[in-house]
Amino acid sequence: MSDVPFGAFLSGGIDSSLVVAYMAELMEQSVKTFTIGFNEADFSETAYAQQVADLNKTEHHMEFVEADSIGLLPLLARHYGQPFADSSAIPTYYLSRMASRHVKMALSGDGGDEKFAGYNSYEYIETELKKAGKMRRGDGARDWFRALADVFYRNLHRRLDHSRLVDEAYELHCVTARHFAPIERRQLLLPQYHGAICDHDARRRSLLDVDGAPIVTRLQHLDLMAYLPYDILTKVDIAAMANSLEVRVPLLDHEVVELAATIPSEYKLKPLADGSYDKKHLLKRLAKKRYPAALIDRPKMGFGVPIGAWMAGKLRPQVEERLLSSAVLPRFFDMPAIEALWKRHLAQQDSTPKIWNLLFLEEWMRQHGAAL
Q: What are the φ and ψ backbone dihedral angles of 214, each rounded to 5 degrees?
């Protein structure tokens, strides 16, 4: 129910596709759906989004983003008001701008990955922990002993609150979540600022302390309490409100969140016979009742942007001017270290998140120079 025209963001992924399916079922008029795409096929889900739109007979709107992200930096820095290093703010801004031309409010599929274990990091961490457990047990053990050890490992996995296992899970999660490791920060920052570098965030680590919970549940809790509010929802809210658009998140309705919390983790991140995992298992089963399996059973893409190729290509002169000739970055950073990072990126050592992090910070510092 709404007093204003509304629609839905449609990426073509499971979460937004399910939201659109239920909207189409409940609404009398056609759902208005909105998709942002890229000419680079590896980053574009527009074909999947179009398929979902066709199946639900939506009024579908689609735009393609070109390599002009540097030009958007001043506007993004003004609206976010802080160094916000998630480059998916670019397509989110364009998506919100497009939607605002047609509706005043849109629904999104945010929250599905946190509540139903859709992130690739969960599979990566579980796989790495399993490898480490096998190494500790020894591959030369007899089959019956390995089976017994697996049972013990699973029980340990579920019951210990402050074990080495949880600490290992936290370190692996940090690898997937951060742009710069502590050693990289020390290389980039001037020596007088090394004291500000934190090797271990005790408050963030404490978010894994969920009594009696398996590792994936702990990881979901960490993302629900940190990544979701401080990155995902912040990104969408600011990009949307910058375009006078309101975004609502049905998958984060408290009843959905509470229900998801009662579902056993193996129905979210389901172990498979080949040692891999089926991410978001229950949501996939639900989605397959409405969509072809080929649309659902495909690798997760996320809401990425091909900014790494753009920066090394069309945007290279602008990036080099901002990074290598900046008037503000030398205030805190070792400029030869930044130049070395840029050269590694050009040499096909992908450093896209790091470069975008520095670019956004550089623009923010320009706008707030008097406060530094």
A: -70, 165
